[in-house]
Design a protein that fits this description.
By secondary structure, the chain is mainly α. 70% of the residues lie in helices and 0% in strands.
Length: 154
């Protein structure tokens, strides 16, 4: 598969960062090859569909390697099936808010002790729960906003 053509098509047909697309077509493919998978099975149509699904918000960027792995291992016959089988459907803003609030309750003492420096810990715990279902940058914004709200109350 001509990766340059796939890159150009993905850049022109999505709002995804060109660096993300390039990293997928190089680093992610190398990683999958090191796992012993034959990435040449991923044709232009499949890769373009993966980028379109991520661009539409139906799956998070972090889920991309798992989607490709499922396709290469024959666990899914198409991209949509990979999304469904991996449970990668995105969660709503309300669900994300609720998860962030639950994690913050669990780590209340840490937040009281560290304040804004608790961000990394909270971010990690939330991502453990939502990885593949919501983009990390969105999680980061919600965690920061919630931490700021707590900071203003004290």
């Amino acid at each position: 598969v001509k990766r340059t053509l796939i890159f150009e098509k993905a850049v022109s047909s999505t709002r995804l960062a060109p660096t993300f697309i390039a990293a997928t077509l190089t680093e992610t493919m190398r990683m999958l090859e090191r796992e012993g998978l034959d990435v040449t099975k991923l044709d232009e149509e499949t890769l373009t569909e993966v980028f379109l699904i991520i661009d539409s918000g139906r799956a998070a960027k972090e889920a991309l390697p798992d989607m490709l792995r499922a396709l290469l291992l024959g666990e899914a016959s198409n991209v949509q099936e990979a999304v469904e089988k991996l449970g990668l459907t995105t969660i709503s803003d309300e669900q994300l808010e609720r998860i962030v609030e639950e994690v913050m309750k669990e780590y209340k003492e840490v937040i009281e002790e560290r304040g804004p420096r608790a961000f990394g810990l909270l971010m990690g715990r939330v991502m453990d729960r939502v990885r593949g279902s919501v983009d990390g940058s969105k999680v980061s914004k919600v965690v920061r906003r919630k931490l700021d709200e707590i900071g203003k109350k004290t």
